[in-house]
Write a structure and sequence with these properties.
The complex is a heterodimer of chains A (410) and B (309).
Chain A: H1 2-19, E1 23-28, H2 33-48, E2 52-57, H3 62-74, E3 81-85, H4 91-95, H5 103-109, H6 111-114, H7 119-124, E4 125-126, E5 129-130, E6 132-138, E7 142-146, H8 147-153, H9 161-173, E8 177-179, H10 185-201, H11 203-210, H12 215-219, H13 221-236, H14 245-253, E9 257-261, H15 267-272, E10 281-285, E11 293-294, E12 296-301, H16 308-321, H17 324-334, H18 350-360, E13 364-365, H19 368-371, H20 374-389, H21 395-408
Parallel strand pairs in A: 1-2, 1-3, 8-9, 11-13
Antiparallel strand pairs in A: 3-12, 4-5, 6-12, 7-9, 7-10
Helix pairs in contact in A: 2-17, 8-9, 10-11, 10-13, 10-20, 13-21, 20-21
Chain B: H1 11-16, H2 26-53, H3 70-76, H4 79-110, H5 117-125, H6 132-142, H7 149-155, H8 172-197, H9 201-209, H10 214-225, H11 227-242, H12 246-251, H13 263-273, H14 277-308
The chains are: A alpha/beta (410), B mainly alpha (309).
Pfam family, one (chain B): BPD_transp_1
Family (chain B): Belongs to the binding-protein-dependent transport system permease family.
Keywords (chain B): Cell membrane, Membrane, Transmembrane, Transmembrane helix, Transport
Chain lengths: 410, 309
């Protein structure tokens, strides 16, 4: 590993001195089939500029990849660029002065005017300086409906959460588990923290909790309704025992599960299965109630480097990531939404169109990761997954503990 | 280990320049220097550093902003930590007893000079060649109700058969225990077998002359003679219990809910998932403390006593 990076560095220096082009090592955790195809679009675009993209993919998801990236940065052997999610994950690295200030690139490219929603750029900004280049938008706020399951039950697909609850009995009677939920804590917590709270407790209550850390709102009537709906959802999910989110999505595809609360990345699974949006599967942004999209996603950060050539390359790369061509090529393959409002995706299905419309109307909210620290997210994950898997735990109990965590949150 | 100096000394020269204690066996001490350095700097230094930083507010990066006992207060008020400790206790007790009993029984059976001993030995030892990750995945599939054991038995006509430990919060630790025992007993069996082979045949002959039964001979004579072997096994098993992590990650990733969390996983999640190094350090300091509390009196009795005798 070390030798290879030294060799890479050596070749980078040779290449730089001879041709004026740089090799940049870019670290990310996009390793599934669709994700790797999307990354190759970035690499192609970068190589086309005469520079070289050195791929540093880390399998195993963000929780595995982030410690590796951080240890390389702290250890003095930083990659040229690395992926983090929009939000507060890089806060401390910025405080420690380890990341490159790319305000000049952002100003030259006019990011302030083109990045939509503006909260994405705000997440990159610390003390008026910009440290990251947003690349895509993923939102949590979707409920997916299984066409085959509702066909089996002989009823129409529901149009919102309440009609879904009413249809649950018919689904059970047809041998279908109404709600498919994976066993990992982030799925169970995410369905509540991101989707059910915004849809049922409402935007204002959600912002009061996540942004202002107001524990009283958690104990208020809006959140009580959300906790009760969550407890009802727990009942509807018994019958499917799977771990990964895509296994739960698969239960929808083969008609064993009726619905799944999951982010827009689930749509990739329906596409791979050859299903058509609106016919074979349905989508309800915001559970069909208060439709707001959270604008989470990914951004690239650039560690400070002694070599001025690499620094120049990093800035060139930052500018390229937000160029219209790259945005379209990357996001069309990735299944995510572009970060700039002035480009059109090539192929858009019914569900993606709904998402784009919400984005255009400004019905957006920040992602939880942009508002609360990873430490608090871990605590909420633990609490919600404990509740989901402990039938004896009541909604009132989980509500009190949720309020305690929010009260302590920074 | 201490070695006493028993070199023959001619009276005169020994009185004039007796080598100082520090320079005795100089070459072996020089050879040990890297190890001594590693032990002091990496192990001891790392431990002290971790304990010091467990009293800070370190987040993603270690920094010295003191938080007093805050991290420990939060740790002990966390449900997940309490559940982790309970799980480790359950797993530890059952794994210790289970591994020793099964390992010794298998070794004793193999020691009865059965045919094909080498084959059985290989079969029992084989799981040890697998990593915990592979073991965990294999047993996750075997215990999966939709495609594993339960599915097979139901397919044979027993429709009401239910065996899904990994999906039942109350018995999930036993699902982990099955995999742990499957992997770990082979090694203990081999160590025990080596110990049994070290017992002089004359002991058996004497026991037979005295008319003592086989089982009684094992329990009253052989096992007490195998004390060092048991100590070695105990240390190996105990180390495996404390660092239990990869098996949980591969088999249940702490679920359902938080019902199969273990302390090592709590540390990893706090440090790298939650970007809260201080909390992770506090948890690992508590793990060290627990080991020390159990280990020191035992080590004193075991090794300190022997030296005196």
């Amino acid at each position: 590993m070390k030798l290879s990076t030294q060799l890479l560095a050596a070749t980078a220096i040779c290449a730089a001195s001879s041709a004026g082009a740089v090799d940049l090592e870019v670290m990310h955790w996009w390793t599934s089939g669709g994700e790797a195809a999307a990354v190759s679009k970035l690499a192609e675009a970068w190589n086309a500029t005469g520079n070289t993209w050195v791929d540093g993919a880390i399998a195993g998801g963000g929780d595995t990849a982030r410690p590796v990236m951080v240890s390389r940065i702290i250890g003095g052997d930083p990659p040229a660029a690395f992926q983090f999610n929009h939000g507060r994950q890089a806060e401390e690295l910025i405080d420690a002065g380890l990341l490159l200030d790319i305000t000049d690139v952002a100003e030259a490219q006019g990011w302030k005017d083109i990045v939509n929603p503006p909260s994405l750029l705000e997440s990159c900004t610390v003390d008026g300086k910009i440290y990251c280049a947003p690349i895509n938008i993923h939102s949590w706020n979707w409920m997916w409906l299984s066409g085959p399951a509702y066909e089996k039950a002989g009823i129409e697909m529901p149009t919102d959460w309440n009609s879904f609850m009413e249809s649950a009995e018919a689904l059970r009677a047809a041998g279908v588990t109404p709600l498919a939920m994976g066993g990992q804590s982030w799925q169970q917590a995410g369905a509540f923290n991101n989707v059910m709270t915004i849809a049922i407790a409402g935007k204002d209550a959600w912002l009061s909790v996540m942004q202002d850390k107001n524990a009283e709102t958690v104990m208020g009537p809006e959140y009580t309704a959300a906790f009760e709906a969550y407890a009802a959802a727990r009942e509807l999910s018994t019958g499917i025992n799977v771990q990964d989110w895509n296994q739960a999505t698969n239960a929808l595809i083969n008609g064993e599960g009726g619905a799944q609360i999951m982010g827009d990345w689930a749509q990739g699974e329906f596409a791979v299965a050859g299903m058509t949006a609106g016919e074979d599967y349905g989508c309800l942004p915001g559970l069909g109630m208060g439709a707001y999209l959270q604008t989470g996603g990914d951004a690239f950060y650039f560690p400070v480097n002694d070599d001025p050539e690499i620094t120049a390359g990093q800035k060139e790369l930052a500018a390229m990531l937000l160029s219209p061509e790259v945005q379209v090529a990357f996001n069309s393959v990735k299944g995510s939404l572009p970060v700039r409002g002035d480009v059109d995706l090539t192929t858009v299905n019914e569900c993606t169109q709904k998402g784009l419309d919400l984005l255009a109307n400004g019905q957006t909210l920040p992602a939880s990761e942009q508002l609360i620290a990873p430490d608090t997210i871990t605590q909420l994950n633990d609490l919600m997954t404990e509740f989901w898997n402990t039938p004896s735990m009541t909604a009132a109990e989980v509500q009190q503990q949720y309020a305690d965590i929010i009260a302590q949150a920074e | 280990m201490t070695t006493t100096d028993i070199r023959p000394q001619t009276g005169r020269s020994a009185a004039v320049r007796r080598p100082s204690r520090l320079l005795r066996n100089l070459s072996s001490k020089v050879a040990m220097l890297p190890l001594i350095f590693t032990a002091l700097v990496i192990f001891l230094g790392g431990t002290i550093w971790t304990v010091v930083y467990s009293f800070t507010k370190s987040g993603l990066l270690p920094r010295l902003s003191w938080a007093g006992l805050d991290q420990y207060e939060r740790l002990w008020s966390s449900r997940k930590w309490i559940v982790s400790i309970e799980n480790l206790a359950v797993y530890g007790v059952f794994s210790l007893i289970g591994t020793l009993v099964i390992g010794f029984t298998l070794a004793a059976l193999l020691d009865r000079k059965i045919r094909g001993e080498a084959v059985f030995r290989s079969i029992f030892l084989y799981p040890f060649a697998l990593s915990f990750i592979v073991t965990g995945l294999v047993w996750q599939w075997i215990l999966n109700p939709e495609l594993g054991l339960q599915h097979v038995v139901r397919g044979m006509g027993f429709e009401s058969f239910t065996f899904d430990p990994l999906n039942n919060p109350n018995i999930v630790m036993f699902g982990l225990l099955i995999a742990g025992l499957w992997q770990g007993t082979g090694l203990i069996m081999c160590i025990m077998l080596a110990g049994l082979r070290g017992i002089d045949d004359d002991i058996w002959k004497a026991a037979r002359v005295d008319g003592i039964g086989t089982v009684k001979t094992y329990i009253r004579i052989i096992i007490p003679m195998m004390r060092p072997v048991f100590v070695t096994s105990l240390v190996l098993i105990a180390a495996g219990i404390v660092k239990l992590y990869d098996l949980v990650v591969a088999q249940t990733s702490g679920g359902p809910g938080i019902s199969s969390e273990v302390p090592a996983k709590y540390v990893m999640t706090a440090m790298f998932g939650g970007q809260n190094l201080g909390q992770g350090f506090a948890a690992s300091t508590m793990m060290l403390l627990m080991v020390v509390i159990i280990l020191i009196p035992w080590a004193y009795l075991e090794f300190g006593g022997k030296r005196r005798g």
